[in-house]
Amino acid sequence: MLQLASSPSTTVSHLAATPNPAARLVLAELSAGLTVAQAAAAPKLFQLKWTLGEEVVVKLLVIILRAFVDSVRVADKPDAADILEMADTLAQIYTHDSVKDIILALKEARTIGTKFFNALDPATIYGLLNAYFEKKARHLENQHLDQKTQAISQEAVALHQLQQAAPALVQSVALMIPASHPNARHLRDKLTLIKQKYRRGLLSVEQAAQQRQEVQQAIHRYPRPDWQPSEAARQQITRRHQQATRRFAEKLGIENPKHLGA
Questions:
Q1: Could you say which of 21, 23, 42, 68 would form a disulfide bridge with 106 (CB–CB 3.0 to 4.6 Å)?
Q2: Which is nearest to 218 in space by CA: 164, 257, 182?
Q3: Is residue 159 situated within a structural domain?
Q4: What are residue 44's phi and psi, to 5 degrees?
Q5: Is 123 in a helix, a strand, or coil?
Q6: What's the domain range around 182?
Q7: C-alpha angle with apex 30: 10 to 110, nearest 5 degrees?
Q8: Residue 237 counted as domain residue
Q9: For 184-216, how does the pLDDT look when each residue is reduced to its tens digit (9 = 90+)?
Q10: Calpha distance 191→212 (Å, rounded)
Q11: What is the pLDDT of residue 84?
Q12: Does residue 134 share a domain with residue 16?
């Protein structure tokens, strides 16, 4: 069909005036199994105008309209001038719809049992196309709403899962013990012990939570770059050092440990 429309030797007037059983057969094959979604995804008329040229697009529409007119068995039908005018009008109106949309619209007009009352005029064809595109708009809108609802549902499920997992994640992060911590091994052993006791039912939920909180507090180390002991603490430290020195002197039999600082 595209080859016929692209042929320079075939004029638009000739296509509009001449019945073409071969073109009708090609259109029947194209329309077999065609859906609204497939037609909506096909290249739009304005895109075809850019790639093929406006004349070729009008020729395609003429072939489609001529095949439809020939398929309707009525006495009064549009003539070549009517077909040519309709093709040009459709090319201007439905720029953001596809050739497959036009094919599907005319196919549905036949398959739903439209009664033409022994006459087919351009106004009837325009009405059939308008009804199809209104149906297409509702279909796409419902599809968009379904996708939006599904996306919202998926977001709600993901949010619920995150809310369920968040407390455990926060607790895991809070109980991470730095390798540089001076009591790292002891704190890890304590966490393991809490976990085992909780699994065996030796600790309640509240008790396990309280003990984990105590470990969390022990993990946190406050920076003390300017820390100095108080006077009482310094005296206590001095006495402790002196006592340790005296014990050391007594152990080695040193009679006067003053020179050791005792």
A1: 68
A2: 182
A3: no
A4: -80, 165
A5: helix
A6: 175-219
A7: 95
A8: yes
A9: 888 888 888 888 888 888 888 888 888 888 888
A10: 7
A11: 92
A12: yes
Structure-model confidence comparison of residues 223 and 112, the more confident one: 112
Of 76, 70, 91, 78, nearest to 22 (Cα)? Answer: 70
User: 141 and 22 in one domain?
Assistant: yes
Claim to verify: residue 11 and residue 41 sit in the same structural domain: yes
3-state SS of 44-60 is: EHHHHHHHCCHHHHHHH
Two structure tokens written together for 38: 């497939």
Q: Is the pLDDT of residue 261 over 60?
A: no
The share of the chain scoring above pLDDT 90, in percent, equals 14
Q: Binning pLDDT at 50, 70 and 90, where does residue 224 land?
A: low
More confident residue, 260 or 152: 152
Identity of the amino acid at 216 = Q
Helix (H) or strand (E) holding 14: helix 12-17
Within this chain, do residues 76 and 11 fall inside the same structural domain, yes or no?
yes
Report whether 120 contacts 77 (CB < 8 A): yes
d(CA 255, CA 262): 11
Please indicate, yes or no, if residue 167 is contained in any of the structural domains. no
Q: What pLDDT score was predicted for residue 29?
A: 84
For residues 241 and 125, membership in a common domain is answered with no
The CA–CA distances, whole Å, from 144 to 149, 157, 209 equal 9, 20, 47
Which two structure tokens, joined as six digits, stand for 106? 């005319």
Q: Is residue 9 part of a domain?
A: yes
**Judgement on whether residues 202 and 93 belong to the same structural domain of the protein:** no
Residue 188 sits in the same domain as residue 250: no
Stated as kind and residue range, the H or E segment containing 35 is none
216 vs 218: CA distance, rounded Å:
5
DSSP 147-160: HHHHHHHHHHHHHH
Most distant CA pair in the chain, distance:
139
